[in-house]
Amino acid sequence: MSLERKEEHDHKAWMKKKDLTPIEATFLTTLIWLDKRLRIVDYLELLETLYYKVNLQMPKSHTEQYNLDNKFWYWYPLYTLGLFSTLAYVVAAISGALLGFYYSPATSGDPTTAYNSIEFIMRDLQFGFMLRSIHRWSAQVMVAAVFLHMLRVYFTGSYKEPRELNWLLGIVLISLTMVFGYTGYLLPWDQLAFWAGQIGVEMSLSVPLAGEWVAQLLFGGFTLSQATLQRMYILHVFLLPFVVTTLIAIHIGIVWVQGIAEPH
Boundaries of each Cytochrome b/b6 N-terminal region profile domain copy (predicted)? Predict the structure, then answer.
């Protein structure tokens, strides 16, 4: 008597009975081969069961409960703002990563290196003007879409129970979006960036008790310098993308679990 588990299904015989295209046959053969070794089908069934259990546990939305599908059709375009802001973020991230190949922050105590690299991108790099424009416009679209998305959530009452946690997470995300925009605004190190940075220093110094410490931490001192640009570069390129991407994934995951809230 063999202890080896017997096959419940004769997959090869089943495939011979079916009129499969070469692509379908290759896909099924690969899936069967992987399933024997990694139990992929079992995990897919587990995810499917979890999906239906989660959705059955959620209360019905107002449109489902009162059959209002044809009453609120004019709201539906506003429910795409979250997706729109996410797509704008992805475009900004990809274009920003490409710009990072050519942008250089201040080196050897000379902050003008950043400005010179922007000039090179805009004037000499092939498609550089277009690439920076895509990055700038996608960032602006993201800020506008996130702001309108928050307004839609508020005025349709989508922040109410059981979605309070995602509302708070959205407030954190829109705040980080503002920080994203501000740190990127300073990277060209032109006149606009310089005076925006000076305003940031003055605002930091106005914080009661901890103002000087905040200015030293965020701007590297009480006046703008190479340390300021390096801090903005680290925040914009290395810290914020990972934090924001993680929070967006959690935000979307909660929406998937809870479903979209229609107008209250």
Answer: 30-264
pTM tops 0.85, yes or no: no
Tell me which residue of 105, 81, 173, 180 sits closest to 135, measured CA to CA: 180
Tokens coding 73: 């059709």
Task: Give the integer Cα–Cα distance in Å for 261 and 157.
Answer: 8
Look at residue 32 and tell me whether its pLDDT is greater than 50.
yes
Task: Tell me what pLDDT residue 207 has.
Answer: 92
* Residue from 55, 79, 90, 96 nearest 248 by CA: 90
Where exactly does CATH 1.20.810.10 map onto the chain? 75-258
The neighbouring-strand residues paired with 216 are: none
For residue range 36-84, list pLDDT tens digits in order: 888 888 888 888 887 776 665 455 555 555 565 555 555 667 788 999 9
Contact 62, 68 (CB under 8 A): yes
104 Rama class: left (phi>0) / alpha (psi -120 to 50) / beta = beta
**pLDDT over 70 at 109, yes or no:** no
The 3-state DSSP class for residue 106 equals: coil
225 by DSSP, 3-state: which? Answer: coil
Contact (Cβ atoms closer than 8 angstroms) between residue 28 and residue 36:
no
CATH class name, domain 75-258 = mainly alpha
- Do the Cβ atoms of 106 and 226 come closer than 8 Å? yes
